[in-house]
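Human: Note token order:
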Amino acid sequence: MIRARGVFAACLLWLCATAAWAAHVNVIVVDGTINPATSEHLQQAVTTSESDGAVALLVELDTPGGLLTETQEIIQAILNAKLPVIVYVAPQGSWAASAGTFITLAGHVAAMAPGTSIGAASPVQPGASNERGEDKERTNVEMEKAEKFTTAFIETIARQRKRNVEWAARAVREAEAIGEQEAVELNVVDLVAASRAELFEKLEGREVEVGGEKRVLALAGVEQRELRMTPLNRFFNFLADPQVIGLLFMGFALGLWIEFQNPGLILPGAFGLLCLVLGLMALQVIPFSGLGLLIMLVGAAAMAAEIFVPSYGLLLAGGLGCVLWGGSMLFDVPEVDGFALPFFRMLTPMAIASGLVAGVILIAVGRSHRLAQTMGDNELLGQVGRAATALAPEGRVFVRGEYWTARADEPIAAQERVEIVGVEGLRLRVRRAAPEA
């Protein structure tokens, strides 16, 4: 019996091992900017594919660009991979812009779906044209250094993969971009395929070089296993969106403002602090301009000050301008491409909404200042009540549902109407009121 159980367990382990090492292709989807989360995901996919016996790793790519440092990490992982890495720009309508161009060229096989494009790999520094004097000269030098480095980097990648080195250099120097058919004609990518099945069919029997060794691809009919991002990577990938960061900081300002206006609610204040923590975490994921963030905070403070300092809208207008200006340069750093707060799609609606909210608050505050006082001692002046006892000269009066000690300069009988003319601590001064009409 014991021997039978041992044989059964051994067979079960053998079947599990066979299933795990069955011929399969691992697939990951990179859809969005290249940031630390996507870099970590792709590097983990390469490591997992090497260890679980995958015959190849397919990277479906659709990106507008991303961070240079993370792009270098991805390129290093692909070039040193111990299995074929197929970079496939898909689905139709996708693009491999900027950082995506580097990643596509680095693949052992580079393919594109119909209706896709590749190129525009120049390093960028938005707002550089606004610099003047020495700052502009220094910016030009930095941009020239960045362009030379990225040109040499992409030429090395293209040369190693035996692809068009001249076009790769033009993609950096002149921001050249092309479609899938021209990319095949110019030897930028290897082929065009409309689907994964067609891609694997065209790659069947193709020979690639991996780690100095020749390998023949056998992909027809193999199992496809999709490797998904870990929950933590998905979370950081979500935070790495500049538009999310903008909304988080607006949520922080709104939550704190509501809490200050209504102390003790707790929930708005907690929501605002949560937004602040998440926003600061996001700024640790991607580089940002400290000056841009400072200008946005100054703008938000100026808008809040309009509620307390009557400036006839000048602080509000100036604050909105600072929010727009600071937001447009929040990610204005040379290392970033594909990261920005869209001016008209994000910043302008956000500023307009904030302005409308602030305007409504200002109107409400202005109206409240014109209303008669409803609290405090002076609010009692002119109120009419009845004498609860005779006032000769002191007694008690009933006003607005309350009994007060009162003093009159003339005798007043009980139940007569009295008018409050003064407040002396907890005692009222009253006089006989005019008869009711």
